[in-house]
TrEMBL record:
InterPro entries reported for this sequence: DUF2242
Organism: Herminiimonas arsenicoxydans
Protein name: Lipoprotein
Pfam families: DUF2242 (PF10001)
Length: 208
């Protein structure tokens, strides 16, 4: 009896092919799942920024001086001026300054510096200054502008030529947390505090 004539062998082959196909599909799904788990394990969870805020007793952003709050802020103002900072505003308790840098042809960096002075006792002969420096980074980007022409009832018609303008776009903003950066500033403030003229100079307020 010829099995192929009655379709027995074709049915067996078909069933065998189905079994092989199912096994291949299961292996493919298993490999995809394993690959996905591998990628997930390698990438890991993204760090959350605020988890780095420990609120410990580090004195990176503050320093005490045996002077009045006014004298501390005046010394801070002079320290910033001596380093090329533009003073945006200054009074007896706060100084705001900024300075621009251009490390590369198409990169612009600006540091915004803020100093807040607070008396530590009722006699105002010991003061703490709280310092914060914010670094903003800008990149030069090209912006394409297409020309348009108003034509009566037709409205605005775009012309087949355009121009490109260069503009600075903020790409990053971060508080400077480098301890040596602030340590150099504190040393300069202390130098100005040793000058008696600093303690006796009347503070004048600059317009915002």
């Amino acid at each position: 009896m010829d099995l192929s004539t009655h379709g027995v062998l074709p049915r067996i082959r078909t069933q065998t092919d189905k079994i092989h196909l199912m096994q291949f599909s299961h292996r493919a799904l298993f490999m995809q799942a394993a690959f996905f788990m591998l990628l997930t394990g390698c990438a890991g969870p993204k760090p959350i920024v605020y988890t780095e805020e420990k609120f410990d007793s580090a004195d990176i952003y503050t320093r005490r001086f045996p002077v009045s709050a006014y004298a501390a802020c005046e010394a801070a103002r002079r320290a910033l001026l001596s380093q090329g900072y533009i003073i945006n505003a200054a009074n007896a308790n706060q100084v705001d300054g900024r300075k621009s840098f251009q490390p590369e042809n198409d990169v612009h960096v600006q540091i915004a510096f803020r100093v807040v002075c607070a008396a530590d006792n009722l006699h105002d002969n010991v003061a703490s200054i709280f310092v914060n420096a914010l670094e903003d980074r800008y990149a030069l980007k090209k912006v394409n502008n297409s020309a348009s022409l108003g034509v009566g009832a037709l409205g605005s018609v775009s012309l087949p030529f355009s121009s490109s303008d260069d503009s600075l776009v903020k790409v990053a903003s971060e508080t400077i947390s480098a301890e040596p950066f602030y340590a150099r500033f504190y040393q300069l403030v202390e130098r100005y505090l040793t000058n008696e003229a600093t303690l006796n100079t009347e503070l004048f307020e600059l317009p915002r």
